[in-house]
Design brief:
Layout (H helix, E strand, L loop, with lengths): L1 H18 L7 H8 L6 H34 L12 H15 L7 H20 L6 H25 L5 H8 L7 H20 L1 H7 L3 H6 L4 H23 L5 H13 L3 H25 L8 H20 L1
Helix pairs in contact: 1-3, 1-13, 2-3, 3-8, 3-11, 3-12, 3-13, 4-5, 4-6, 4-7, 4-11, 5-6, 5-11, 8-11, 12-13, 13-14
């Protein structure tokens, strides 16, 4: 029932994202445009602007929510999020490096971002490891790594100030001007990594028992944790490579889904994916219409929602 309710939310958020904006499009025209029988300006707006942007928002929401749910499980840390602990910053540094040095090689952005995300994840693990992993050490190491990588991003933007305009919106996290090429660039990573995440959902459940218990039932703990970290990094880096440093989706969504559906990752992962898609689409719609005709980046909306939620979790955990 919860999964069905989340599916309804996805449909409602998607419909609102397509219909609402500086130009309102009636539902009847949406139906005819999708059937290929529509004509006029509204059809052009729908097929070339609204629909691809909505699909990108849904795919990004799925990726970041799944990444956050996986990281929270393997790090045993409710505060884990690809943006907070620095994985997104690693992806961002490599992504901006490609954008500034080789702006025509957009196909390299996602692989480079994945390398940066994995490098950041490994560095966080190394810094946080001391006779085992403790949640608070991961957060502190992640904040330090995120600040260091953020300094690298700022340095690149200063050194290449003549090319920085294209990277500014990318820094905040936005969906403006996202179109069909971005959908084509993102969806293969979303499908592959999501399938892998669902296949490893049972392993995530076993990891919740603790390392000793997991080893006792025959799970190769460190190898499984590395594979799952790679999946989470691929999900986060593919999203970052398309919309930039969009934060807090991976923090808010898995917690909300867990409250409603429980901690069984066989259900939690699909619930997080659906809710993540709905949240990002709804936030992007609000960002477009709240201060029309001025359009805010969706990253600002997510930060306004996520920062208080992070402080609430921090106070509860400590």
């Amino acid at each position: 029932m919860v999964l069905f309710a989340f599916l309804i939310l996805v449909i409602a958020a998607g419909a609102a994202s397509i219909m609402l904006g500086s130009v309102a499009i009636p539902f009847a025209e949406i139906e005819s445009a999708l059937q290929g029988t529509g004509v006029g300006t509204h059809e052009q707006i729908l097929m070339n602007i609204r629909l691809p942007r909505t699909l990108v928002a849904a795919l990004v929401g799925i990726n970041l929510a799944l990444s956050g749910a996986i990281l929270q499980a393997i790090m045993k840390n409710p505060l884990a999020d690809p943006h907070i602990i620095g994985i997104s910053s690693g992806a961002g540094l490599m992504g901006i490096l490609v954008l500034l040095l080789m702006p025509e090689a957009t196909v390299l952005v996602t692989p480079a971002a994945f390398v940066g995300a994995m490098g950041a994840a490994i560095l966080i693990y190394v810094l946080a490891w001391k006779d085992g992993i403790r949640p608070i050490r991961i957060i502190l190491a992640g904040v330090a790594v995120s600040a260091f990588l953020g300094a690298g991003i700022s340095a690149l933007m200063i050194l290449y100030s003549d090319r920085v305009h294209s990277a500014l919106m990318w820094m905040v996290g936005g969906l403006s001007a996202r179109s069909w090429p971005h959908v084509a660039m993102l969806y293969p990573y979303t499908i592959c990594a999501s399938v892998l995440a669902l296949l490893f959902s049972r392993h995530l459940n076993i990891l919740q028992l603790g390392d000793e218990m997991a080893k006792g039932v025959g799970l190769a703990v460190e190898r499984t944790r590395f594979i799952l970290t790679a999946i989470a990094a691929l999900l986060a880096s593919s999203a970052v490579s398309v919309v930039g440093l969009l934060g807090f989706v991976g923090l808010i969504v898995p917690h909300a889904a867990r409250l409603l559906i429980g901690s069984d990752h066989r259900l939690l992962l699909p619930a997080s994916a659906l809710l993540g898609a709905a949240v990002v689409m709804a936030s992007d719609t609000f960002a477009r219409i709240a201060f029309a005709p001025v359009e805010l980046p969706v990253g600002i909306i997510m930060a306004a929602l996520g920062a208080p939620f992070f402080l609430f979790l921090l106070r509860r955990e400590l």
